[in-house]
Amino acid sequence: MYAQMIKSEASTEDPKQLKEFQAKIDDNIKVEPRDWMPEGYRKTLIRQIGQHAHSEIVGQLPEGNWITRAPTLERKMILLAKVQDEAGHGLYLYAAAETLGVSRDDLTEQLLSGKMKYSSIFNYPTLNWADIGAVGWLVDGAAIMNQVPLQRTSYGPYSRAMIRICKEESFHQRQGYDIMMKMAQGTETQKKMAQDALNRLWYPSLMMFGPSDAESVHSTQNMAWKIKMNTNDELRQKFVDQTVPQAQYLGLTIPDENLTWNEEKGGYDYSDPDWSEFFDVLKGNGPCNVDRLEARNKAWDDGAWVRDGLMAHAEKKRAAKTAAE
Ligand SMILES: [Fe+2]
Ligand SMILES: [Fe+2]
Fold first, then answer.
1. How confident is the model at residue 217 (pLDDT cuts 50, 70, 90)?
2. Could you tell me the distance, in angstroms and rounded to a whole number, from the CA of residue 163 to the centre of ligand 1?
3. Ligand nearest to the CA of 140
4. Which ligand is nearest to the CA of 142?
C-alpha cells in the first residue's frame, strides 16, 4: 500500500523537477531541508529515520536492564556510557527527522501506539551477562554494517547524523567483543554462556538486514534516491564474512551447519534465518514486544511532570521577558 501511495503522489509532481532532483542525487549533491523534494522521498525518509531513531531508544532497554548487574564497576561504567550513546543517537535522528516537517511528539506518539516500528532485534531478551557481549558484538556490528554506507546517503541531515553515530558504534562493537573474549577465555561455564548467547542471537542478527532483496518492496526506488545504499543481501553477506573469523578467534561456533567458505564468490555460504519468525516478531509476537512498548509508555507517562515543569518554566521566563519590555 505504501509503494502505491508513493507512486500516485509522484505522478502529480512536475516531471522536470523530478528529473532535476534525480540529477542532483546522481551528482552526489546533498539534499537539504529547504530544497524541493518529491513527497515519496520525504515520506520514505521520515519513516526510515523515524524507525531508526525509535530503534536507538528502544535498544536501550535490553542493555539498560543489565547496568545494575554488570559484573565489575568498570563494566558498569562502560555499559552506562554505551546506553547513553544510544540515547544520543536517538536524539540526533529525531532532530534529523524534524527537518522533514514531522514533529518529535508525532514520532513519539507513533512509537508508543505501535504504529511505527523499531528494529525487531530489540524484541529479544537479554538473559544473562554474555548476551550483553553478544549484543554489542553482533547487534551493534550489524548496525554498523547498515550505517556506514548511510554516511553517504543523499539527505544531508541524515548523512551528518550517521557520521557522528558511526564513530560511537565502533566503540560499542568493541566493548561487546571484549566481553565475549573474557567469557570465551573464562571458565567452562562462562564459555558455555558465550556460546549460548551466540546461538540465540545469530539468526536474529541476520534478520536485522531485512528480508531478501527479492521480497523487499521499496528497494529499487530507494536505491535510486540514495536512501538505501546497498541491498539487504549484500550487507548480510558482508556481515557474515566479517563475523565468522571473529567467532573463530573466540573459539565459538556459529550455529549453522551449512556455513562454508565459497571460493568462487569469495564469501561464506550460510543458512537463511527463519523468515516466518521475522514476520511474526514484526507483527508483535516476539518474546518482548509487549514489555518494550509498556516500558516506553511508562517512561513517557512518568516523565510528564518533567515536560510540564519545563514548559511552565519556559512560559514564566517568556512572561517575565514580555513584562520587562
Ligand atoms: Fe546507536
Ligand atoms: Fe550502538
1. low
2. 12
3. 2
4. 2
CA 118 – ligand 1 centroid, Å: 13
- Residue 126, classed as helix, strand or coil, is coil
Q: How much distance in Å is there from the Cα of 180 to the middle of ligand 2?
A: 16
Residue 77 C-alpha to ligand 2 middle, in angstroms?
15
How many angstroms is it from 171 CA to the middle of ligand 1?
A: 10
pLDDT band at 6 (very low <50, low <70, confident <90, very high): very low
Q: Alpha-carbon distance 118 to 50, whole Å?
A: 8
Residue 133 CA to residue 242 CA, distance in Å, equals 17
Q: What is the mean pLDDT of residues 110-126?
A: 95
Distance 140 CA to ligand 2 centre (A): 5
CA atoms 218, 223, 224, 225: torsion sign: positive
- pTM value is 0.91
- Residue 324: its pLDDT value, please? 87
Longest Cα–Cα distance in the chain: 77
Does the pLDDT of residue 3 top 50, yes or no? no
Q: Which of the ligands is closest to the CA of residue 89? A: 1
Rounded to a whole number of angstroms, the CA Rg of the chain reads: 22
Q: Ligand 1 centroid to 145 CA: how many Å?
A: 12
Measured in angstroms, how far is the CA atom of residue 38 from the centroid of ligand 1? 28
Helices (H), 99-187: 104-112, 129-134, 140-150, 156-184
Q: Rounded distance, CA 64 to CA 143, Å?
A: 18
Let me know if 186 is exposed, middle or buried by CB neighbors in 10 A (0-12, 13-18, 19+). Answer: middle
Average pLDDT over residues 260-279: 96
